[in-house]
Amino acid sequence: MIRRAKEKLVLQYYGMVNLFTTDFRRMRTHEGFKRYFKNTGWLFLGRLGGMAISFYSSVYLVRYLGPENNGALSYALSFVALFGFLASLGIDSILYRDLVDRPHDRDKLLGTALGLKIIGSLITIAAIFTALPFMYNDARVNLIIIIIAASLIFQSFNVFQYFFQANLLSKHTTVVYLTVTALLTTMKLSVIWLHKGLLFIALVLFLEPILYFLGHWFVYQRQQLKISQWQFDHNLARSMFIVSLPLILSSAFASIAGRIDQVMIKQLMDIRSVGLYDAAVRIAEVWYFVPSIIISSVFPAIVNAKKVGHAVYRNRLIKLTLYVFLGSVAVALPIYLFAPLIIRLLYGVAYMPAVGVLRIYVWAGIGVGMAAIVNNYLIIEHRTSSVFFVNFFSMAMNVLLNLYLIPKFGISGAALATLISYIAIPIIAIIINNKKRYEK
């Protein structure tokens, strides 16, 4: 009986592989697939190239700073990120969807989104300055927080990248990304070689969104388009804000879930523990760009499939979910197995306590990929209220688990809290949507 069951599983496995292979061969001859695949290829190439350029400097930086200084920098970044939802106002996904659906309203959409995001970034900076006096930080950490917070104004111009992605022009954003990454890497290495310290690293991070803005602006003009033609429409702004209101809170919950662990480690343990934790997280998250690129690039195809028919739409969503899940497992497994060797080779003996964190945290990538698909699906279906509830429950779970697990297991407890809360997102989404269908 056991032998028959094994044979059945083997047959099912090879049947699935054969199905995917046949399906891919059929799709690659399709013109639409070629366009999306080419777009995804440019995004993937850019991220992979950028990662290769910056990975060495990142490792060198962590080694140079040591656990304590790395913890100070990581804590400052996490603290600013907790307020980041106010800067984006949750409109990124709405803007992307509308640029795909209504390309003729390009100038109004981009101009209105930019105006809203600038207002949001000013509110964010004010909120950070208000919160700082209540935190038990030293003067150095507070100064780093202020420098990083000031860069939020220029992060508002990331609306450019949604225009390029919506129009399958990711080749241009790839060139900008690689150029800026090379410049930033050179700056960081120069700071390290000249022994200028943590403050100059923060200044390099301040320059990052400025360089991206200048690069995207230059490429946008090369498309015979002008930023001066962008228009801020009050009615559209009101509409976008109302639609994205649940997403603002959802972004808040996502920011808290993604960054609260490092802030709580600093409060419940010490700054050195934050540095160890951050070192492991950097490795675990280094490949997160893969599912995000696939999802963001295929997103227009899924939006268009909904117009064609429910069967095509459902089929594309299922395939996307399978590919992201299998790809996530394929990357996470070797990192889990070779975690001690990876930590020792990259960071040295001082960071060996981070091995446990890496082995736990790397599996959270599965949840990240699934959560991205769930959030995009709910946005396509105009169920932004569901996105709100899903992210709220995930955030609440993360905070409560951190409060319980950090005192009990230290930084490994924080990694476990993140893993559980990320994996829970698609489960919570299924429960909420099934409940809504039952109520109907």
UniProtKB/TrEMBL annotation:
Major site of localization recorded for this protein: membrane
Pfam family, one: Polysacc_synt
The UniProt record lists the keyword Membrane: yes
High-level lineage: Bacteria, Candidatus Wolfeibacteriota
Keyword Phosphoprotein: no
Membrane topology summary: Multi-pass membrane protein
Location in the cell: Membrane
Name of the protein in its database record: Membrane protein
Keywords in alphabetical order: Membrane, Transmembrane, Transmembrane helix
Top-rank taxon, per record: Bacteria
A Gene Ontology cellular-component term: membrane
TM spans (from-to): 44-66, 72-95, 116-136, 142-163, 175-194, 200-220, 241-260, 286-305, 317-338, 358-380, 387-405, 411-432
UniProt xrefs under InterPro entries: Polysacc_synth, PolySynth_Transporter
